[in-house]
Write a structure and sequence with these properties.
InterPro entries: UPF_C3orf38. With 188 residues, the protein is α+β, with helices and mostly antiparallel strands. Helix content is 38%, strand content 23%.
Length: 188
């Protein structure tokens, strides 16, 4: 019985990464991590994951080569420079595994405002992705007006979109408009 100390995302990532290793490297890594307790190829992957103190410790092992981590990141759709050093690839892999994928679901990514004339302004911010690659962030304002014939139906009066590309993953999408800026968009 093995005790798993990694998160589900780290566990799945480590398994995928270990599948990219050669049988020789896998057995050598198992010998190092488990102190030669496991010798069968069937148990090696589970043992390596179970006996590793953390995902970072596993990624920094000598047998987990830079090329293997690079290949894993490419397979996951993460774009990194080809000349990246191993420590940079390890950091990027850990960032991938620690991200929850829900950066758009923050209170800073939504703002609403109602005008005395009946216009409702909704500003949202979010991330733009192509598959698993974050391409940038967007900020969009919708001006909605209630249909006078049907009180439960809204029509789009105006739309304003701002896109910022090529940003770092650490930047969360945030609505930068304050209430006055939103009102000025309506009066233009």
């Amino acid at each position: 019985m093995f005790i798993i100390t990694l998160s589900e995302k780290e566990l799945n990532g480590c398994r995928t990464l270990l599948a990219l290793l050669s049988a020789g490297d896998l057995l050598a890594l198992s010998d190092t991590v488990t102190n030669r307790l496991v010798s069968t190829l069937q148990m090696v992957e589970k043992a390596i994951v179970a006996y590793s103190q953390s995902a970072e410790e596993l990624l920094k092992r000598r047998r987990v080569h830079r090329e293997v981590i690079f290949k894993y990141l490419a397979k996951e759709g993460v774009v990194v420079p080809p000349n990246s050093e191993k420590h940079q690839l390890v950091k990027r892999t850990l960032e991938l595994w620690s991200s929850d994928g829900l950066a758009d679901l923050t209170a800073l990514g939504l703002k609403c405002l109602s005008t005395p004339h009946g216009l409702v302004l909704v500003a949202v911010a979010g991330t733009i992705h192509r598959e698993n690659v974050c391409l940038g962030i967007f900020e969009e304002v919708f001006g909605l007006i209630r249909d006078p014939l049907d009180g439960n139906r809204w029509k789009v009066k105006l739309v304003h979109l701002k896109i910022k590309g090529q940003i770092g993953r650490e930047q969360l999408p945030v609505v930068t408009y304050d209430s006055n800026d939103l009102l000025q968009l309506f009066t233009k």
